[in-house]
Amino acid sequence: MSLEFYSATDVGRSRGNNEDSVVVDDKIGLAILADGMGGYKAGEVASEMLTSSLSLELSRCLRETGGLVTVAQARLAIEACVDIANRAIFTAAHGNPQFSGMGTTLVLGLFCDQGLLLGHVGDSRAYCLREGRLTRMTRDHSLLQQQLDAGLLSLEEAAVSNVKNLLTRAVGVEEVVRLELHLHQVQAGDVFLLCSDGLTDMLSEPAICGMLVNHAELVDAGRALIDGANEMGGRDNISLIAVRVGPAWNLN
Length: 252
Hints:
Layout: E1 3-10, E2 20-25, E3 30-37, H1 42-63, H2 71-95, E4 103-104, E5 106-112, E6 115-121, E7 125-130, E8 133-136, H3 143-149, H4 155-159, E9 180-184, E10 191-195, H5 197-200, H6 205-214, H7 218-231, E11 238-245
Helix pairs in contact: 1-2, 6-7
């Protein structure tokens, strides 16, 4: 398996603290991004709890396989580890008034024997750049997305909606979390982008596509995306993980 990873997080221009958390484990083909929410610094706690727990538990589970994992192994491991992390955050939020109401989004990618297993909760997103075309791979778990799906809002109205940040799902806010998990095809040359809404609220999808296409190196593309989001206002923390699939990718 040939994979190149780049990750970065930035506080942005309006926030005093960073509630995003990112983790990459290139040895097992794992990328995790979380965008926390809650009271004073509680969002930081939730996102850090989630990424730390998932990286530790998934690494432990998957390293035991000794190689590229099957879809069945990966799916079971992801679901079990997300459940463990969700219950830990939920318990902490209900056991400490300082953390009351905290929770976090999640977008997670794990490369396995048949492609990319992509899981998400909330409005952090994943995209795939293939042959110059950017495709959104996730659908937000948000009130705004529900209104769009129901035809109650146009895209132009959605861009200025006052319910943009109201989530219908998040990790840690309920005792059981509903993780959306799908397998996606992978091709040599693909670039996958996982990101928080601090990026997508500031930059349009055509702008994101252009920056990925116009920068051959992942580090340059990542820096351009964060700089671009800050130039457009940087109203939230900005985090991303970019993964390029190399020419040696082979599922056989």
